[in-house]
Design goal:
One of its GO terms (cellular component) is mitotic spindle pole. One of its GO terms (molecular function) is microtubule binding. It is found in: Membrane. The protein has twelve helices and no strands. The protein is mainly α and 227 residues long. The protein has a domain of 117 residues.
Length: 227
Amino acid sequence: FGQNSLFLWRLIRAYCDVHDVSSTLEEKKTHAETGKRVGEEAVSLNPTCAESHQCLDVEQSLPNPSPGQYSMSILITLPFRYAIICGIMAEYDTVQNKIKNGYIFKDHLDKAIELKPQDPLSYYLLGRWCYAVAQLSWIERKVAAMLFGDPPSATVEDALNNFLKVENIQPGYSKVNYVFLTKCYKDLGQREKARKMCEAACSMNAVSKEDEDFQKELDVLRPALGV
């Protein structure tokens, strides 16, 4: 199965899922490291995925695509899945590797968006990347500048635009997207818009572990915004 793109995509996704449900830090780190290695192998099989533009049309035009056709179209998600696993891995690395993985995460997200520009999840993750970069500490920026010349650059406004893009593509996409819209508007001093986004987040049920994890942040934001 090592040369099968469909299998590798599913394997990366499985490592992401197992990471999320693991109970110890060591288990999470192990699954993240293994998933990243699988991601590197998957991307090396087809680093450009030029055929994916055509495969999108094949997948959308066939209600029941054959396994071969589906495995070709799934190449679109390999940069996306690799970006996710790099983002997860950054949680457990040194500052140096965290920044390195951040660059890789951004590069593969850009590729995923180029291949599938109407996928809301890619813009959500790009919003998360922008928001995290906007919060980088002084020392992290200095390390990035020393290692790579130019540190990663993004603002809260950049993050906001990506989260709004998610909402534009698919209104009510997720509870967590509303949480980040709330945080962005709050950081930018737009209290009324922040309050509306907070209300929207509160109105949605938690349907994923990520939703549950961010409920704690939402509980802090609510009284601060009078919700």
